[in-house]
């Protein structure tokens, strides 16, 4: 027995080594979260309780009924209060003739009413279509028409863009507006509902004024209509109105960001909404004492499904901001006592670029979670704002799977996913990285000339990420885009690993290293070819982002007369308040790219702009920049300035230079 004191530490050290080497405890945490989510989803499908209205009802009728669920602009709603309001909204929607499985479009900025309409629709078995409130004109008309909704509910912020004149200008002629007006004490009604006391139901007081008789109904939501809705009794509809839902049935429509074209309605299934949000709450370890904070738009699945529904599954509170602003972000985090913040990557860059504040570290945060946090921002963000753990995930609304990375140290800092030995073995059959031929447009998977199967990428080699599908039942895991079979077909690749198999194309180029970490490379098509080399726009943007003078950088390839491929161009927003001159900034930028990037990857042109056009989820809209290219007249007409790299320096790109390039008199 004298050797026992020596054996125990040795065994412990061996176990610790194996755990670190193979990520055993890390994998168990993620796999158990996924397992619990899958079991819960299967049970709820069997019980026909996938609709998350039942989750709200469960909390509202349990000992958690008085726990806070929603926090917005200083007001709070408990689960019981929210349930009461949701039932009233459901009753009003029924009065508008909304039927089971009907799609109703919602065009709202973030607010409590957004959630009441959303869950009100679920309470009566209907489906919401979330409209991006930034859309106007042609894009707006397109989203409404592709949703097939006959009823569109619009908040006060969107009233002007839905005027008859604007709609008709863009071909939206099937319009019916409804305006509500009645005699009532709006404040008293709202207070009665919050206190859950009985309120009158004076339907006879309502007067609906129909302005134009058309097939579509545009209903403008305001305080008057809100008060009218509160007069409806909180009526719980029979379970049959929500029945017959499976994990592949539609829960809602959520639109793609539309960075390269018009937005497409992606089907968010009950399986993804219910199981995805439960997986997230379990993985994050969210409990009833947590407060989750998000300033991301609720029309996007990241904030709605993985924000609001994640908090709902955990029985915790979520604080929603009307809109992201670095000026209000930390004030709201502090005021709400948030313990977890939700991000989309570029918002972290904006927060990091903002002036230092005493609130930077004055908070109760234990974690931040989201997607798209760039490697050059990751550690500075954690350090400045004292965030102990980053939970980064990779996913898309229409994607049948995702990647996850819980990072508390530098080992997986910057990675979009991580898996240990056990998880890698379990997931290997469902994931693939395939090599791409970037000389084609768009890039296509490279196939073995003998077998005609796809060539898989080696470790640390970039490839397009694919998720396995059931070739005999594609909709089981990939519900795709609503009423758009051609778009669905374009996302499915067959004969990848074996003849007859089927895979979902993510459209994203990733690489996986030998230690189980997944790294973002680029979008398929964003990588461009120059001087016979592939250039990753994301990797170049990360290099530019390390320069202190640059606030934002968007890298893209541009066509140049007389040259094959695409040359590198970067649109940059410079930080405000810098004492350095433009010449000093450009000299520093030139030295930086020459030092950090190979010749073929260095941006030949720099476009200095005041701001970059982005989607509501902070994705830069590259298409316009690519189309404008280096046409000096167009660029300067936008108020921007072009510089180009000559003899190791960025100098002003002039009219004479543009003429020389057009005439083929410049060697690049």
TrEMBL record:
Residues 539-619 form the AMP-binding enzyme C-terminal domain. Residues 62-418 form the AMP-dependent synthetase/ligase domain. One of its GO terms (biological process) is long-chain fatty acid import into cell. Keywords: ATP-binding, Ligase, Nucleotide-binding. GO terms for molecular function: ATP binding; long-chain fatty acid transmembrane transporter activity; long-chain fatty acid-CoA ligase activity. One of its GO terms (cellular component) is lipid droplet. Gene3D superfamilies: 3.30.300.30, N-terminal domain of ligase-like (3.40.50.12780). Coiled coil: none annotated. Belongs to the ATP-dependent AMP-binding enzyme family. This is Acetyl-CoA synthetase-like protein. It comes from Ophiobolus disseminans.
């Amino acid at each position: 027995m004298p050797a026992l004191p020596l054996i125990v530490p040795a065994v412990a050290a061996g176990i610790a080594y194996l755990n670190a080497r193979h990520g055993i405890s890390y994998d168990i945490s993620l796999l158990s979260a996924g397992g619990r989510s899958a079991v819960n989803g299967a049970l709820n499908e069997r019980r026909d309780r996938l609709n998350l209205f039942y989750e709200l009802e469960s909390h509202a009728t349990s000992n958690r009924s008085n726990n806070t669920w929603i926090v917005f602009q200083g007001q709070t709603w408990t689960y019981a209060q929210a349930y009461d309001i949701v039932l009233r909204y459901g009753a009003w929607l029924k009065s508008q003739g909304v039927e089971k499985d009907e799609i109703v479009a919602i065009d709202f900025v973030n607010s409590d009413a957004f959630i009441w309409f959303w869950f009100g629709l679920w309470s009566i078995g209907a489906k919401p279509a979330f409209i991006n409130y930034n859309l106007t004109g042609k894009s707006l008309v397109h989203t409404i028409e592709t949703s097939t909704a006959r009823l569109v509910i619009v908040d006060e912020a969107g009233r002007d863009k839905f005027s008859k004149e604007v709609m008709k200008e863009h071909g939206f002629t099937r319009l019916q507006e409804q305006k509500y007006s009645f005699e009532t004490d709006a404040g008293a009604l709202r207070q009665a509902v919050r206190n859950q006391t009985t309120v009158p139901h004076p339907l006879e007081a309502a007067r609906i004024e129909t302005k134009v008789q058309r097939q579509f109904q545009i209903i403008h939501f305001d305080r008057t209509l809100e008060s009218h809705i509160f007069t409806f009794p909180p009526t719980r509809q029979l379970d049959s109105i929500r029945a017959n839902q499976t994990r592949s049935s539609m829960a809602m429509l959520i639109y793609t960001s539309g960075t390269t074209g018009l937005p497409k309605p992606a089907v968010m299934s009950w399986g993804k909404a219910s199981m995805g949000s439960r997986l997230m709450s379990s993985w994050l370890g969210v409990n009833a004492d947590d407060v989750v904070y998000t300033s991301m738009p609720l029309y996007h699945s990241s904030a709605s499904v993985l924000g609001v529904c994640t908090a709902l599954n955990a029985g915790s509170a979520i604080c929603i901001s009307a809109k992201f602003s670095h000026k209000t972000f930390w004030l709201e985090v502090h005021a709400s006592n948030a313990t977890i913040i939700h991000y989309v990557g570029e918002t972290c860059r904006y927060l990091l670029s903002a002036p230092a504040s005493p609130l930077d570290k004055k908070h109760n945060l234990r974690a931040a979670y989201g997607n798209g946090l760039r490697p050059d921002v990751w550690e500075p963000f954690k350090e400045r704002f004292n965030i102990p753990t980053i939970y980064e995930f990779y996913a898309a609304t229409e994607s049948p799977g995702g990647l996850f990375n819980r990072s508390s140290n530098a080992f997986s800092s910057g990675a979009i996913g991580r898996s240990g030995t056990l998880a890698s073995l379990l997931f290997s059959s469902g994931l693939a990285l395939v090599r791409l031929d970037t000389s084609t447009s768009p890039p296509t998977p490279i196939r073995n000339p003998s077998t005609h199967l796809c060539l898989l990428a080696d470790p640390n080699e970039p490839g397009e990420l694919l998720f396995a599908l059931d070739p005999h039942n594609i909709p089981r895991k990939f519900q795709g885009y609503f009423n758009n079979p051609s778009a669905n077909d374009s996302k499915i690749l067959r004969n990848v690993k074996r003849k007859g198999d089927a895979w979902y194309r993510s459209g994203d180029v990733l690489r996986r290293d030998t230690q189980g970490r997944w790294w973002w490379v680029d979008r398929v098509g964003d990588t461009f070819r120059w001087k016979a080399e592939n250039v990753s726009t994301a990797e170049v943007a990360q290099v530019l982002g390390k320069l202190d003078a640059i606030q934002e950088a968007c890298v893209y390839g541009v066509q140049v007369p007389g040259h094959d491929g695409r040359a590198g161009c970067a649109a940059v927003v410079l930080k405000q308040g810098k004492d350095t001159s433009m010449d000093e900034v450009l000299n520093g930028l030139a030295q930086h790219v020459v030092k950090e990037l190979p010749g073929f990857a260095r941006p030949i042109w720099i476009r200095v702009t005041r701001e970059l056009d982005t989607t509501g989820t902070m994705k830069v809209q590259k298409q316009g920049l690519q189309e404008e290219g280096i046409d000096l007249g167009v660029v300067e007409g936008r108020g921007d300035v072009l510089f180009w790299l000559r003899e190791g320096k960025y100098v002003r790109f002039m009219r004479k230079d543009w003429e020389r390039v057009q005439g083929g008199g410049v060697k690049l």
